[in-house]
Amino acid sequence: MPHVELPAELLPTDGRFGCGPSKVRGAQLEALVTRGASILGTSHRQAPVKNLVASTRERLSQLFRLPEGYEILLGNGGSTAFWDAAAFGLIENRSQNLVFGEFGGKFAAAATAPWLQAPDVRKAEPGTRSSAEAVAGVDVYAWPHNETSTGVAAPIRRMDADAGALTVIDATSAAGGIDVDVSQADVYYFAPQKNLGSDGGLWYAAVSPAAIERIERIAASDRYIPEFLSLKNALDNSRLQQTLNTPALATLLLLDDQLGWILDNGGLSWAGARTAESSRALYEWADASAVAKPFVSDPADRSPVVVTIDFDDRIDAAAIAKSLRANGIVDTEPYRKLGRNQLRVATFVSIEPEDVRRLIGAIDYTIERLPQA
Ligand SMILES: *Cc1c(COP(=O)(O)O)cnc(C)c1O
């Protein structure tokens, strides 16, 4: 099918609207070249790289207004590795996992381990969400802050449950894009290739004193823990501004620049206001559209950083995404396993609100000109 050629005034200045990996700003790439010249290709056990790791930890502490006693940990392997690390070193006996999309489901699968009791899984239909409920014997309550596969965001509130139970939040696509009170979580973990506009391969976590105590207690027990997935190992290495094995230095450089940029602009409240502005434009457009509507029906659950828009049967969303792609507007396809007639658009902090408004114009223009079923 031939694509619809968009007029220049409808083309965003940057066509990257993917939910991860996501847009990396030009200034970050310049910093990668200038600052990277003395860092890329050098030892991660020497001062230049250790200072870079320290800077990312310090800037994350500032960004999240880190409460007294909390620490920033990091390790290799991204959020997926963190799930396995948590199964080995954070869950004592049993977790409760809220599953309202792919990513929550993947943590629930990782928490289904022979040395643990089967997790208490609270599942909800895609586009809606479940809530945590205190259950005796559960020592980790886990849910995503933002379910990237569906565009559902959940509130972050510490669970009032068994003494010592931890609240563990997957903030992979939310971190730095949704304002949050980190004191309401014991572990707020993420990978930096989504809203933080970096590249993949690392995980970071803001952890509370209670979580540190848990990590140390399980590490001292007789449970077998592979070294690569040991949170105690990550704790010790993070305090030394390093990782167990070689980290991706480019990922660290891109992240550090992004954190500096967000902090210079006003930090988390600025970032949250910016993603709210961008996402609101899309939701209002979809609410008013005759052929589209927000996939997440409860406005309170709609994500400010990942917007999912359903189309009615007369419109072929895949054809729209394909036509946009031919114009350099990429990655508006829905999450592959969701299988809906949908567009999914990231409204991360790096994305200009004006570019989101142009994208809306581009979608309207495309719909008018694509042949309808
Ligand atoms: C992308 C994503 C992940 C997976 O991150 P990786 O670094 O690729 O392992 C986990 N959770 C959420 C919410 C995500 O959006």
Automatic annotation (TrEMBL):
The keyword Transferase applies. Keywords: Amino-acid biosynthesis, Aminotransferase, Cytoplasm, Pyridoxal phosphate, Pyridoxine biosynthesis, Serine biosynthesis, Transferase. GO terms for molecular function: alanine-glyoxylate transaminase activity; L-serine-pyruvate transaminase activity; O-phospho-L-serine:2-oxoglutarate aminotransferase activity. Residues 41-329 form the Aminotransferase class V domain. InterPro entries: Aminotrans_V_dom, Pser_aminoTfrase, Pser_aminoTfrase_mycobac, PyrdxlP-dep_Trfase, PyrdxlP-dep_Trfase_major, PyrdxlP-dep_Trfase_small. It catalyses: O-phospho-L-serine + 2-oxoglutarate = 3-phosphooxypyruvate + L-glutamate; 4-(phosphooxy)-L-threonine + 2-oxoglutarate = (R)-3-hydroxy-2-oxo-4-phosphooxybutanoate + L-glutamate. Pathway: Amino-acid biosynthesis; L-serine biosynthesis; L-serine from 3-phospho-D-glycerate: step 2/3. Its EC number is 2.6.1.52. One of its GO terms (biological process) is L-serine biosynthetic process. Its cofactor is pyridoxal 5'-phosphate. Belongs to the class-V pyridoxal-phosphate-dependent aminotransferase family. SerC subfamily. Catalyzes the reversible conversion of 3-phosphohydroxypyruvate to phosphoserine and of 3-hydroxy-2-oxo-4-phosphonooxybutanoate to phosphohydroxythreonine. This is phosphoserine transaminase. It comes from Microbacterium testaceum. The lineage of its organism: Bacteria, Bacillati, Actinomycetota, Actinomycetes, Micrococcales.
